[in-house]
Amino acid sequence: MVRDQTLQLLRQGYRWAGGLRPDPPTAPWAVPTRLLGRRAVLIGGPAGVRRFYDPRLRRRGSLPAPLKLVLFGRDTVHGLDNAEHHHRKALYLRVLTADAVADLGRCAEQEWQAVTRRWAGGAPVRLFDEAVQVLGAAVLPWAGIPMASAELPRRARQLADIVDGFGTPGRPFARAALARARLGRWAAGLVRRARLGQIHPAPGTALHAVATARDLRGRPLPARVAGVALLNFVRPTVAAAWYVAFAGMALHEHPEWRHRLADTEPDQGAVAAFAQEVRRRYPFVPVLAAVAREDQDVLGVPVPRGGLVVLDVHGTDHDPTHWPDPDRFDPDRFLAGPVDPDTLVPQGGGDVATGHRCPGEDVVLTMIAVATRTLARLDYTLPPQDLEVDLSRVPTRPRSGVLLTPTAR
């Protein structure tokens, strides 16, 4: 009998799937295993991605309750299927239009300009911490949330605490759970105040959308559920701080790209390629999980009803078949021609409108691009520090958070 791998996944993080998949990876790979006491199969590669988003699989019940409740919240779109999922997903797509994402990008750019002016000639700063505050200060007002400027840092930190601790047992998880509870009460209160006319979020904003959202039967979403939806608009934007830290490290380690992107009007194709390579090269989610609706064959491995199908996200993004020398940071990969979307799944795969692909993908790419342009133009040095990336911790980032010493202008 195959041994249950749940503890190994918790201990090994991003390295876990690599110990199970073939070396070199086959195309695709499908490895029988056990997780959460259930029969499971680990799959990856483009064919694995396509199989993972097959309608014969569902999302409800695919994640351990503690992890799901802390990271996503209760009754969230991430755990819905079929008509419920499509209906709730449409809520996010209505708000996250191209124009709205561009507007959020401009908000973030203004925040970065303000904060870097304060850095000039000062003490070293930790890029990760600064990114959390910048992204929070940009996305919370953008979402239509009225709040005093003094409250912004606390809410941004709480949003980051959720992401930082959801996958790490012990104190980080406890801190994440506490932040989730506090933010949940706050967000539900915002929804109630909007419905009572005590605050007036502009139409088209996230707060207005969730406050006026209705379920499949035409009933208003419960305030708690609407609050969860609101947090799932703003939390992923703050989570882009992890990628911003990696982008800062990449600019340091690849000064040719720092120079290339430092122009006042940089090549937008190069900026976009850099942002994509940050998402591909540096890890965020190691795996994703789904549940078999019925007994079925998954790429040659029999999976019973209720069994788990686990997508190797990190392995797919580092598959040498599609990404030669995958651990090398090389944005030029994205300038050589179209990329098969099923080979790049840092935020999931499939169709964003009808499937479970993250609707905030363009937001994350925009946040990386804006931060990258800002950093490339900034005069700074990196003092000695520990830039090691611990692949056993989820999510991970450079240990130091990337310390920068701004130089006087």
TrEMBL record:
It holds the Pfam family p450. It comes from Pseudonocardia alni. InterPro entries: Cyt_P450, Cyt_P450_B, Cyt_P450_sf. Its cofactor is heme. Belongs to the cytochrome P450 family. Keywords: Heme, Iron, Metal-binding, Monooxygenase, Oxidoreductase, Peroxidase. The keyword Disulfide bond does not apply. It comes from the Bacteria. The keyword Cytoplasm does not apply. GO terms for biological process: sterol metabolic process. GO terms for molecular function: heme binding; iron ion binding; monooxygenase activity; oxidoreductase activity, acting on paired donors, with incorporation or reduction of molecular oxygen; peroxidase activity. It is an enzyme of class 1 (oxidoreductase). This is Fatty-acid peroxygenase. Its EC number is 1.11.2.4.
